[in-house]
Amino acid sequence: MDFEWDLFVESLPTLAAGAVTTAQLAIVSIIIGLLIGLVGGLARVSGLAALNGVALFYVTLLRGVPLLVTMLFLYYGLPSLGLLLEAKAVAILALSLTNGAYVTEIIRAGIQSIDRGQMRAARSLGMGWGLAMRRIVLPQALRRVLPPIGNEAITLLKNTALVSVIAIPDLLRAGTDIMTWQANTFSPFAGVALMYLAMTLPLVWLVARLESRWRVA
Amino acid sequence: MSTIRIRNLHKSYGATPVLRGVDLDVAPGEVVCVIGPSGSGKSTLLACLNGLEPFESGEVIVDGQHIGWGPERGGARLRVPERAMTLARRRIGIVFQAFNLFPHMTALGNVMEAPVQVLRRPRAEAEATARALLDRVGLGHKMLAYPADLSGGQQQRVAIARALAMQPAVMLFDEVTSALDPELVGEVLAVMRKLAEEGMTMLVVTHEMGFARDVADRVVFMDGGLVVEQGSPAEVLGNPREPRTRAFLGRVLRPDSISA
Known about the structure:
The complex is a heterodimer of chains A (about 220) and B (about 260).
Chain A: H1 5-45, H2 49-64, H3 67-80, H4 87-113, H5 116-124, H6 129-159, H7 171-182, H8 186-213
Chain B: E1 4-13, E2 16-26, E3 31-35, H1 42-49, E4 57-62, E5 65-67, H2 82-89, E6 92-95, H3 107-117, H4 123-136, H5 152-164, E7 170-174, H6 182-197, E8 202-205, H7 209-215, E9 218-223, E10 226-231, H8 233-238, H9 243-252
Parallel strand pairs in B: 3-8, 3-9, 6-7, 7-8
Antiparallel strand pairs in B: 1-2, 1-4, 4-5, 9-10
Helix pairs in contact in B: 3-4, 3-5, 4-5, 5-6
Organism (chain B): Falsiroseomonas oleicola
Subcellular location (chain B): Cell membrane
Family (chain B): Belongs to the ABC transporter superfamily.
């Protein structure tokens, strides 16, 4: 054990700067991932074979490849296609595409878990498929899948630790830098672990709050 | 012109024929009760009438709109586009056995939803209409209750109000009391009876023989995917011609079930 309190406290400002990057990447990727998942989930239940096929292909591909591989593939692969993106953009792309694949399946399952009578009742009142989905089915489905979507958001937040391999100064990277300068592992990494934990708490809180507010009366 | 006109309607689920050439008309203001053993195709018939179930062939016209298949041209019919069916459904109210209220909305919200979202009525106007309708079905005191807090009978009355809010040309009732506890059946039938008295055109699939006898202008007996017999309640229920009708009534008409 080489824990030194002073070193721990000293490393916090540097770690905090890394944590800001991590939080930015996570928030942007979670939002984009949710949007992808919503579109993907709707495509999966649309009843249109082409849309469903595209969505299923996307899900199978992104779920089947490790996030780290996806990220490195995009980081080194896109430039050879003539597409130069900065590291952060690559990281957001990889994180949100992978997250979106999981969210797609969660939202598909949520929609399919809603009793078919709901869609029938909505359609019988003259609603088109889209309106019935938006006003009747989706609000119930999203409420139901809030806990697993919260899980995915937390997973994504922690998966941002992988971006340090493409040279983004995130929280983990800040920790390893300090470790190298100070030749001390434990003190900075205690801070790293605590900060990841601290960042998941707002997500946990947000999910709990949404769950209680959207509870079906 | 009939509010509902059905000619030679054929429908099957896979290889199993459910409707095998149904002919039926319902005149404006008429109340028609459809009775028959389970599996006779009664509920499927209703689902075909508002296009919720596709059918193989036949002509269905409701409130002047072709449902499922368009008018015959040169011996063939074209499928009615989904958009036209969605428009036609505005005028066809249906109430389901399972209520199917929207659980994330209050009773008032359920009734206002389609007028606001589909007909684009101003909220205040839609709310006034919805309140009046909920009053009419005896739920003026439950406007802001959620479906989960209502009894089955109350839920079904909200469902009736919800369908009426679209000012439909016809109301279809699909075994609407079959899922209810016996003591809650009466309150729903009372609402339907009032609706009939007010002149609503109604096609009612039911097992309530007392209701059919007292309220229907005409009773239709279906069996095996066909209309076997139809006529006034007195004729069909009191003096059936067809052996199959007699056999069915013999099974369901015990003296106590006829009290209305």
